[in-house]
Amino acid sequence: MKIQEADAKSLLAAQGLPVPPWQVARDPSAARAAAERFFAAGAERVVVKAQVLVGGRGKAGGVRLAATPDEAEAVARAILALTIKGIPVRKVLVSPAADIVAEYYLAALVDRSARRILVMGSAEGGVEIEEVAARNPAAIVRIHADPYLGLLDWQARRIAFALGLGAHLREAVAIAKGLVATMRANDADLVEVNPLALVREVGPEGIPTERLVCLDAKVTLDDSALPRHPELEAMRDLDEEDPVDLEARRHDISYIRLDGTIGCMVNGAGLAMTTMDLVKRAGGEPANFLDIGGGARADRVAAAMRLILADPNVRAILVNIFGGITRGDEVARGLLEARAAQARTVPMVVRIVGTNADEARRILEAADVETATSLDEAAAKAVAAAARVGPMAAAEPSEANR
Ligand code: GDP
Ligand code: MN
């Protein structure tokens, strides 16, 4: 689950990391009010930032500075009218603007092949790390943290020196360790600060000082660990949630949309992956991964059918159910009911094995649904059915465009 910058910053702040104060506003006048507060507290300028779950907001015009409340309101209005990478901006974050001396990149992420948390840093902050990796890979420092001990002091110091932050060693060490702590405390997949900025501030006696601040924050939480953190559920941004994902979660169905044409409805994650492999081997491309879960009841079957058919690329459905506690005949009836309730029908090939499989087959064949005994056979039949539909659909573009 991706969370917005403001929420990511609150997780960093909870670990004691330096983030500028902020306020989130959903309309220009609220942004103005927030800006007025920061100006009253001594800010010379404020920064207004689009809150959307994609990167590159700066380049898209979604991060702008303002020197007066009027300007903050106008800038917020402009940003709230933007659509960034297909996502309409619905809220902005307002902060006192930092006076940036230098920008760095620092992130903690899961390195699956090493089975460790990887901390990556670069003195080239403010640009995307993929760009640095492509252009100048030597500019990136990588250090693995211990899964139990976190990032050790000497490791954090090594990162700080590699970034040229020797003069700010104490702060840099605390921030590097803090990113890993944030990751472990919340079961995050990614905690990225880009830019980590060295900013100029004027101290109480008018003496300028420099300190490190997390100016941007991107956190991705591990969905599988969310049940351990019920408080983080509130950070889910329903504004940006794909309605199909919402529907899938509501029915406890694991659904991942893919690019192919064969919709797959399967019980069990392993069986679902096997099914996708065999679709590929039969020359087709799966349109989705779908694990309908245990005890596939009629309402779940219907929901799964809706999810699959909501994808316009689907030209055939392959149902592969292993009946155990789930009774095959019930699934068969559920499938027919679900199909009858759909506006769009596509060919369906069903393989049901296990409990009451014979009865399931009789029910399906009586309703003219193609069945299969082996998974290979089912995959081949589904791919053939999709191919039969394919040219037809292509020959009638007006139908699809209407
Ligand atoms: P992103 O483009 O989505 O990654 O958004 P960022 O929050 O990283 O902002 C993009 C760029 O805007 C940063 O790299 C900075 O150069 C600039 N920026 C962000 N906040 C401030 C700020 O408070 N003051 C100044 N001067 N520039 C900022
Ligand atoms: Mn950024």
In short:
The protein is an alpha+beta fold. The chain has helices at 5-14, 28-40, 69-80, 129-135, 153-162, 169-186, 243-250, 269-281, 298-309, 328-340, 357-366, 375-395, 397-401; strands at 2-3, 23-25, 46-50, 63-66, 83-84, 87-88, 92-96, 100-111, 116-122, 140-145, 188-202, 208-214, 218-221, 254-257, 262-266, 288-291, 316-323, 348-354, 370-371.
Largest sheet: 7 strands, antiparallel
Share in helix: 25-40%
Gap from first CA to last CA: 35 Å
E-strand count = 19
Write down the oligomeric state.
single chain
CATH homology-level superfamily of the largest domain: ATP-grasp fold, B domain
Percent strand: 25-35%
Broad structural category: alpha+beta
Name the overall outline. Answer: elongated
CATH topology of the largest domain: D-amino Acid Aminotransferase, Chain A, domain 1
> Which hetero compounds are present in the coordinates?
guanosine-5'-diphosphate, manganese (II) ion
Reported CATH architecture of the largest domain: 2-Layer Sandwich
Question: DSSP helix count?
Answer: 13
| Tally of individual domains | 3
Average pLDDT works out at: 93
Top CATH class of the largest domain: Alpha Beta
Unreliable stretches: 392-402
CA-based gyration radius: 26 Å
